[in-house]
Amino acid sequence: MIEQGPIRPPSEARSLLFRLTRNCPWNRCLFCPVYKGQDFSRRSAKEIKSEIDVVGNVIDEIRGLSWRWGYGGKVMGPLLSHLLSEKDFTVMHRQTAHWLYFGQGSVFLQDANSLILETEDLVEILHYLRHRIPEIQRITTYARSRTLARRSLQELGALRQAGLDRIHIGLESGYGPVLRFMQKGVTAADHIKAGCLVREAGISLSEYVMPGLGGKRWWREHALATADVLNRINPDFIRLRSLRVPRSTPLYDKLMNGEFEALEDDEVVHEIGLFIDALDGIASTLTSDHIMNLLEEIAGTLPEDKERMLGVVGRYLALSDANRLIFKVGRWAGAFRTLDDLDNPALRRKIQEIIRQWERETPGEVRRTLREMADQYI
């Protein structure tokens, strides 16, 4: 059995997962519910390579079956159905069969900060991955800015040469007071240095931003300072991950005692508009590819799509209170994806009935119920 960690980016949903480290070496961020109470540890190159061999053997087995079925080594629909239903095949067989079927060839290296491993070990692992599983087209991983800022350009260049294609960084904010309050363990200068090093090394860079992280106290400074940091980096991707504060996060206690005052969803949308407007001189692709984000359709490439993205923000904020409520309930219920869904009469009636039911069962508690519905996606 291959050991796997608990999370990966949504963009890596069809990736093979290999766990290089366990949990997070920092693990103090107030907004994060993952890894709390779990110790960090590094896995050895030998252990990781043995798991790569397991996956490689499964791929060889599936390829052989494909040839016997007359598919020339490809995983076609009937073969995939067989692999998913046959009791003799393991979970690893099923995961690998999906990977081969979709043909994207991506691999994601877990957990929260894989690049904390020694460069020599990482290079060995990357070379072995590429050699043992030649179908791989892209290898990506998470990394902390603090860790990357301590790497040399030569080290990152060696990782690129060994086959590392993309690094995902949780930037979250570029504003010092927010970073300190949230115990992020990094500075804006660290973020800039790390991002620029990754870009200079020729590795694709994906930076995650957390709208709402500044709360009511720092929302404006958070938006503008974060945009300024990204303007200095010019990452390939900017990914929005709006703040949610479920009970499982350390930030929840500060929310309850008044140390942190969260923005309402509409205020977060307003902040996102300010943030996008402040992005300047970069050619990044901005995405809102997570259910925690209210407006999934805020997406595009800068600078050409900037006005269109700001138009989505403006269109939402111009809605009546009643229509904004319908959209939020529809979004968190999984029924709506774009603002145009408001114009679907059948969907609209269903959402209105949900709202009427909430008002009957818990009068005056619609906002709380809505917040709890959104928090479930953490």
Question: Can you characterise this structure?
Answer:
The protein is 49% helix and 11% strand. The protein is of the alpha/beta class. The chain has a domain at 320-378. The radius of gyration is 22 Å and the shape is globular. The two termini are 27 Å apart. The model has no long low-confidence stretch (mean pLDDT 94).
Query: What's the mean pLDDT score?
Result: 94
**Helix share bin:** 40-55%
- How much is the radius of gyration in Å? 22 Å
Tell the overall outline: globular
Trace the largest sheet across and list its strands: 1-4-5-6-7-8-9-10
Structural class per helix/strand content? alpha/beta
Order of H and E elements: EEEHHHEHEHHEHHEHEHHEEHHHH
Strand content: 5-15%
Oligomeric assembly: single chain
Describe the SSE topology.
Layout (H helix, E strand, L loop, with lengths): L15 E4 L1 E2 L18 E2 L2 H24 L8 H9 L5 H12 L3 E5 L8 H14 L5 E6 L1 H5 L3 H10 L3 E7 L3 H6 L6 H13 L3 E6 L5 H19 L3 E4 L10 H7 L7 H14 L6 E3 L12 E2 L4 H12 L3 H12 L12 H17 L4 H10 L3
Parallel strand pairs: 1-4, 4-5, 5-6, 6-7, 7-8, 8-9
Antiparallel strand pairs: 2-3, 9-10
Helix pairs in contact: 1-3, 1-4, 2-3, 4-6, 8-9, 9-11, 11-12, 13-14
